[in-house]
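Please decode residue identities from the backbone states below.
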């Protein structure tokens, strides 16, 4: 009888231990990978645009770097990490984005557009692909219009308000993190 009580106690203790080791996905959008991704959204597009953008906020307690991004082929032919620049020439994808519908984009999302600078001249805003986006330890990095963002190229259709785009982010340390971007008019 003592053996039965001992075995039952061990089984019960093992069950509690295994349950305590389970993951709790409610703490971050990244499933507990050390990276927290929040406020994920995509800008709506017009029917003629073939490029779009996704934005978000990323935090990493230990520091990490966003090194890649993927979206389903049904959404876009290509997704890249980009940074808005001033004083540079736009890449082909940004030129295409500007020519399709520059009026619907603000200065942070057009391929290139003149803006007044302090000398009274004109500075060119452009975008360039970046290899990675560093997330310093304990800091928050925001991908936003006019800064870092995810560029969607070769759109397969219009992005409409309320659409959800599955996005797979690749980090140096955390690996892959899947999030959903909800399209918004902004």
């Amino acid at each position: 009888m003592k053996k039965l009580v001992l075995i039952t106690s061990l089984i019960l203790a093992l069950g509690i231990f295994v349950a305590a080791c389970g993951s709790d996905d409610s703490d971050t959008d990244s499933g507990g990978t050390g990276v927290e991704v929040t406020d994920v959204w995509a800008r709506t597009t017009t029917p003629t645009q073939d490029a779009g953008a996704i934005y978000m906020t990323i935090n990493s307690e230990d520091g990490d770097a966003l090194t890649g991004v993927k979206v389903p082929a049904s959404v876009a032919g290509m997704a890249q990490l980009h940074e808005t620049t001033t004083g540079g020439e736009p890449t082909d994808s940004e030129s295409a984005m500007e020519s399709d519908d520059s009026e619907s984009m603000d200065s942070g999302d057009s391929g290139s557009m003149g803006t007044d600078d302090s000398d009274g001249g004109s500075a060119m805003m452009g975008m360039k692909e970046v290899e990675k986006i560093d997330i310093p330890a304990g800091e928050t990095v925001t991908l936003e219009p006019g800064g870092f963002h995810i560029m969607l190229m070769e759109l397969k259709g219009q992005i409409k308000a309320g659409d959800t785009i599955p996005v797979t982010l690749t980090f140096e340390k955390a690996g892959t993190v899947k999030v959903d971007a909800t399209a918004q008019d902004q």
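Observation: The chain has one domain: 35-184.
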